[in-house]
Write a structure and sequence with these properties.
- The protein has one domain (about 5-104).
- The protein has four helices and three strands.
- The protein has helices spanning about 5-10, 55-75, 80-90, 90-104; strands at about 15-20, 30-35, 45.
- A hairpin with a 7-residue loop joins β2 (about 30-35) and β3 (about 45).
- α1 (about 5-10) crosses α2 (about 55-75) and α3 crosses α4 (about 90-104).
- The protein is elongated.
């Protein structure tokens, strides 16, 4: 997963879907994390068909969302993170507006 994907997941908690697909011919399920309606259901993360049942796939994907959000919160505490400077600088407000407009 890229840092950009992690921040997209953590930054859009009301527009993230953790779900599954399948089963495949072997009876296994894939896991998916997508954006919701606002993000046009774009796939952010997908797994191969490795889960034995749909509930386990959904639980695993929800755990990825939680873990990613926690990682992102910790990443923002790192003073060496260039995003911290960007978010706290005078230019940060303008940059956030540009990024938000570009992502819609």
């Amino acid at each position: 997963m890229t840092r950009l994907t992690a921040y997209e997941i953590a930054g859009n908690p009301d527009d993230i879907i953790a779900t599954h697909a399948g089963p495949d011919n072997a009876g296994k399920y894939c896991g998916f994390i997508t954006r919701g309606e606002v993000g046009r259901y774009r796939i952010l993360i997908s797994t191969p068909a490795i889960f034995d049942d749909p509930e386990f796939a959904d639980d695993a994907m929800r755990k990825v969302v939680v873990d990613t959000t926690e990682w992102t919160e910790n990443d923002l505490k790192d003073p060496e993170n260039p995003l911290v400077h960007l978010l706290t600088s005078a230019e940060g407000s303008l940059v956030r507006q540009i990024v938000a407009a570009a992502s819609n």
